């Protein structure tokens, strides 16, 4: 269902995936055999980070994405192929849990690659992956405007009381990971059940809902580090997102997202 809903406007095929993955492997082989140029060396760092994030920062307590896990190689392959397919973007941390969520819900790596490339080509995610600061600022403003209607105290605390805190600090990671780094798997999957159909506007409402769900803790924060800790508290110290949420949490979160969209 997700693959059909996301679509394939880019016209990618299994051959696109295989070609991009082959390019990644050829590059790593050049590095191993000391035939790499400076650009190869720069890109090789993507693959080092991909393997590290797959093992250490992708729902680690599930044990399916770590080195000995059944989906580790598929996750590394999808992320490596995407980095080569969009070499202007490369690998961006946060993409790992998006690809992991897709691997848990789609049949194979080829289908995941096609879905990942197309979903990251939607306007809001693309603005974060290509560092389009104007478009990012527009997204931040939409979130803060909506937040102001829902909780003026929280809006004022984040925008006026805490002058050293920028929206990028507490919203950037949400949009880079499309919430997969901030929610348990079941919550993220439930959000994506809606997102794949409804598109980017839902992400703005989801950001507001997530901020409101942590309103009291955010109001009690006094430094940028404390704000960041509240926003990322779904993640244990190793940076891996929670795997399983509380019973019914996914339905409560979607209800909150819907509520955030109401005037």
TrEMBL record:
GO molecular function annotations of the record: GTPase activator activity; small GTPase binding
Residue ranges spanning the membrane: these are none
Domain Rab-GAP TBC: start-end pairs: 1-199
Q: Which PROSITE patterns match?
A: TBC_RABGAP (PS50086)
Superkingdom, natural source: Eukaryota
Q: This protein is called what? A: Rab-GAP TBC domain-containing protein
Q: What is the native source organism of this protein?
A: Photinus pyralis (Common eastern firefly)
């Amino acid at each position: 269902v997700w693959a059909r809903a996301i679509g394939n406007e880019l016209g990618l095929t299994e051959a696109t995936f295989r070609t991009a993955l082959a390019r990644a492997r050829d590059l790593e082989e050049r590095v191993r055999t000391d035939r790499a140029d400076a650009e190869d060396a720069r890109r090789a760092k993507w693959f080092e980070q991909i393997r590290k994030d797959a093992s250490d920062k992708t729902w680690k307590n599930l044990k399916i994405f770590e080195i000995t896990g059944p989906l580790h190689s598929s996750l590394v392959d999808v992320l490596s192929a995407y980095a080569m397919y969009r070499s202007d973007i490369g690998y961006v941390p946060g993409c790992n849990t998006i690809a992991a969520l897709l691997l848990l819900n789609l049949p194979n790596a080829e289908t995941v690659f096609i879905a990942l490339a197309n979903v990251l080509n939607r306007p809001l995610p693309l603005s974060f992956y290509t560092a389009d600061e104007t478009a990012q600022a527009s997204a931040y403003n939409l979130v803060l405007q909506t937040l102001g209607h829902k909780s003026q105290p929280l809006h004022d605390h984040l925008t006026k009381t805490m002058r050293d805190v920028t929206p990028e600090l507490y919203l950037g990671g949400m949009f880079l990971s499309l919430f997969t780094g901030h929610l348990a798997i079941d919550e993220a999957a439930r959000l994506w059940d809606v997102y794949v159909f409804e598109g980017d506007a839902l992400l703005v409402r989801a950001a507001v809902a997530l901020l409101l769900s942590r309103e009291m803790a955010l109001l009690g924060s006094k430094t940028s580090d404390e704000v960041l800790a509240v926003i990322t508290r779904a993640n244990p110290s190793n940076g891996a997102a929670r795997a399983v949420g509380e019973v019914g949490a996914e339905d409560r979160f979607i209800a909150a997202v819907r509520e955030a969209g109401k005037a």
